[in-house]
Amino acid sequence: SAIDWDAFAKSLTPIETIQEPSQIEKLSKDYYHFSPVLQTQLQDKVANLVVRPRSEAEVVQVARACVQAKVPLTIRGAGTGNYGQCIPLAGGVVLDLTKLNAVAWVKPGLACVQAGAKLAAIDRVTRESGWELRMYPSTYRTATIGGFIGGGSGGIGSITFGQLRDRGNLQAVRVVTLEDQPRILELRGDNVQQVNHAYGTNGIITSLEIPLGPAYPWSEVIVSFEQFMQAARFGQALGDADGIVKKLISVHAWPIPSYFTALAPYLPENKAAALLMVADSCVEPLTALVQAWGGTITYTKAAQDAAKGTPLMEFTWNHTTLHARSSDPTFTYLQTLFPYDPDLALVEQCYRHFGDEVMMHLEFLRTEGRVMPAALQLVRYSTAARLNQIIQYHEDQGAFIANPHTYILEDGGRKTIDTAQVAFKTKVDPYGLLNPGKMRGWLERSGAEASP
Ligand code: FAD
């Protein structure tokens, strides 16, 4: 490009900048390699410069410099996204927000935090007054709150509170714009949806008001079942058991448990497993429910022992895929929402239809008042065409697939162009500098084609 990057970096003094090529390369990547499709599309994408501001004022200064020089700017939290969300397609600046990480205040049920704060670090502060994040991804220990809102969907806690997109799970945001004179906007109420899950394409979130739930001491429990469908129906029953306080219901068909090597003593051969988090005080009623469904509790760890060993949640959600891929890197995965059906008929049909090619992994969540299974099935990958066939089968049968094999925002979980998000981008990013190439609604508006 025509930009003199040394001079550009110098012009940002005293803000920290990184120009060392291997560092830039590292900070230009995320976990896109979970998808063999994205792997080939994104492996050579890299920024020209990484900038690491420490305050909102510094963010505004970087925004102004990028607008003046018409340089693309891609926001990065911890870079743990799975769809190349934070990979810069057109080079330019990667804005690393991990140093913008203060917890400003905590009130009952609500915290105000800076975007680069790590999820686990937020909880350490809020738990002092009996509160914690309502939900978090299994990358809890590394991911940032800004990245979770920008590119995530839900996770541990979604069985009680739904997903990030549900009204009430994000209270307010402060956003820096990429106008000629960058502004700081505050969005509240439904207006937060303009930037919620937008891959940082329409504003730099600098701080957020994030709702909290009561911090229970959580027990971790593993239950073993002879049959997968027995485990799945138990998962639904536990989800529906309103008197049992819970945070995680993760159900796995064999051979998935065989990839959890650290848990091997608790995962008998050829059996399905349910990995759970329930309030310590609810282990007794849980035990009765397990008996009713013919399961066997093989492992219990009370909250006071939480510091010992790897947390159980780091085998669930997309960590399941991580563990499977470390044993066989040809594995990839799907993200599916099955239609509401307490009998799980379509889950059973898909489980039997694909056999060992698509291994069933369910994560129960509550959405619009009803408990249903999301699935992150493990797929033995052969070709892109076969992968699309598998996706098509699910869609034909009425399951919703949030395709994890695309970096285009709308082609993943949304399927439709969010006109409010596009309209907001028109206002706050008139030159289209924020994470270019990711938002189909913007690309089509400006006459270009979204490439894949
Ligand atoms: P990044 O990857 O850095 O960014 C994500 C997106 O948000 C990018 O588009 C980025 O540009 C944008 N962004 C970042 N910060 C801001 C900001 N301040 N303002 C505007 N836009 C911003 N996700 C889930 O939802 N649930 C899970 O259970 C889950 N499990 C995972 C397990 C594994 C093993 C892996 C690798 C990933 C998993 N993920 C999961 C995906 C990801 O880890 C989470 O969504 C995480 O919260 C992303 O945070 P991050 O800080 O790493 O974001």
Q: Give the helix level as a range of percent.
A: 25-40%
The CATH C-level class name of the domain at 218-301 and 336-401:
Alpha Beta
- Ligands (ions, cofactors included): flavin-adenine dinucleotide
Overall spatial form: globular
Unreliable runs, pLDDT <50, ≥5 residues?
none
Radius of gyration (Å): 22 Å
| Strand order across the largest sheet | 14-11-13-12-18-19-16-21
What about the largest sheet? 8 strands, antiparallel
- Taking the alpha carbons of the first and last residues, their distance comes to 24 Å
**Roughly what fraction of the amino acids lie in strands?**
15-25%
Give the strand tally. 21
Structural class: alpha+beta
- CATH topology heading of the domain at 218-301 and 336-401: Vanillyl-alcohol Oxidase, Chain A, domain 3
CATH architecture of the domain at 218-301 and 336-401: 3-Layer(aba) Sandwich
CATH superfamily (homologous) name of the domain at 218-301 and 336-401: FAD-linked oxidase, cap domain/gating helix
Number of helices: 14
- Provide mean pLDDT, rounded: 96
